[in-house]
Input
Amino acid sequence: MVGVLQKLSVAWRLGRQAVFRPVVQAGWQHVRNSSHFTYYPDTVPESHVIFGEDVGFGGVFRCTIGLQDKFGKDRVFNTPLCEQGIAGFAIGSAVGGATTIAEMQFADYIFPAFDQIVNEAAKYRYRSGNLFNCGKLTIRAPCGAVGHGGLYHSQSPEAYFSHTPGLKVVVPRGPIKAKGLLLSCIRDDNPCIFLEPKVLYRSAVEMVPTSDYTYPLSSADILLEGEDITLLGWGTQVHVLREVAELAREQLNVSCEVIDLVTILPWDQQTVCNSVKKTGRLIVAHEAPVTSGFGAEIAAAVQSECFLHLEAPVERVCGFDTPFPHIFEPFYLPDKWRCLSAVKKMMNY
Amino acid sequence: MKMLTNILSSVLRPRGAAGQLWGQGSAALMWTDFWELSMRALAPFMTAVRGAGGNSTTEATFETRPYKLHRLEEPPLPSTTCTRDDALLYYRQMQIIRRLESASGNLYKEKAIRGFCHLYSGQEAICVGIRAALRSEDSVITAYRDHGWAYVMGCSVVGVMAELTGRSQGVARGKGGSMHMYAKNFFGGNGIVGAQVPVGAGVALANKYLGRKAICVSLYGDGAANQGQLFEAYNMAKLMNLPAVFICENNGYGMGTSVDRASASINYYTRGDYVPGIWIDGMDVLSVREALRYSIDYCTTGGPSGNGRGPLVLEVATYRYHGHSMSDPGTSYRTRDEIQEVRQTRDPYNALQGTYCWRRLGHCGGA
Output
């Protein structure tokens, strides 16, 4: 069971317009009553465009449903099957002045676009001496394990992009955060990659406020305060870690502090280090393979900053160093049992 | 007797796609093995002409469907001969693939197959026709709609279904699933759209470099035809005069997007520009076979230093009856009438059966 997400009433389903600007919809959709939050702003800025594969009819995850009818085909449209083209096109569109939200159908398909994102988008402002920039660019991609995705529908590529100065990489953990963070990304003056854990499209249902709000990027959330050990994750893994904290409290009498990193790049080193200085132990958990996963960067930074406060080495509970398996997915993922046994190990270090 | 021992050994000592011993290596027979055993043993008897009555022949000549050419002067042959045994083989292969895909669809709905499942029903004539023309040294690489290809390139039905259901007897030991099936000279089975085409060009390079007179057939769909890496592959293949045949299986839809909404030019056989191309009606097995025979000849002979004349871009016009994958009903972007119409008028094995019976290559009940 993914986390502690409560099913809430349909009262928050949006029909009424929000007093807000962006033409964006982050569709976190509950299967049964199809409620999803949509932003239809009162004043419609003329320069926002959304495109990607199958975006026009609503997208394969229905994130852009209704937008083409509302805003027209010149602003919400399909592209052919060409990720590198989509990324390049989006970068150009953003540089030209249109706020652009491009969609990669799955994060696994983002790799043909990798060159455009890393070599063009990330470096535009720097190389032009701030004459030009593609800050108006946001790229959205569903990422993460979904139970049956196999090699090419389950990857988490945040680590590849975290290695690129000039980008921002954001991973929400639920609908409320998703809306605020996506709006922040769109308004942020840097190219942002917004990775949406696809398993949460169906399983995450939350009461999302209809008004406008944003969350600051690069600000980690402490979801649960604790004394003994810090558990750090992002996206779907945050819900797993909350369960682990619960289990640790019941079975091991250990008080865990659970942190959602929220933004991978630039990450909130301050919050994490403060927490580690308090607890003395850190576990980083992510689905991506362990070698050079983002946990490696966190571990290196934390040991450098908090060395004398550490009671045990920083532990990473991650996917194994193999391609994402089809049939072995339950063994591959850093589930609550693996995380719990890491907690046990660290408490007894 | 030799046939019997061959059949028995393939079941009792199951071998994987690379020839290695599979599973426990001992006689672990499943009921499906008995089925396959008996079908193989009985096949000659079931297909014998009863009483050889009437005027049936063992070989007949058929006209191929018209081709369209791009930068080529001579088309593939306008007519071709087909023996009774060959026709029966093609028919049987297409039937097996059709049933394999139906069974896969049903297993998916029962959740015995998880993940992704892209069905090939309607396009069988392509893999059967191409395989009929290929020689043992030629290679094939395709995208994720590969169950039919896995079968014609030598994987057993049990191997394919075991792979789909994640069993260790599968052709990729259950680790690949639907999209990653491999066999000798069959390089898969690839999940990322268009990624297989430069790889196929590379296999063609290896063939040329190692002096094999072999081609590599790289298949992709109309959706993949808009990927940039294909054009890189065309350029390299033409520049280096590689024995590569790039084949676009145009089934009219890239997932849910029809070809005219995705491509500025829907003449995929001309997309190679400086690479010559042929358009083929993909619902006729014999036309496909003839076009591939032409391609093999083109790519392996007639060029400088005893090599071929370079790559070709083929477009095979076909249709898929199912949706893009099992999560796509296939009716939100096209009408049921359209699917029915193709099934009734252009179905590949109905076409073969029609010509087969008409030419009296065999005894068709009641004919």
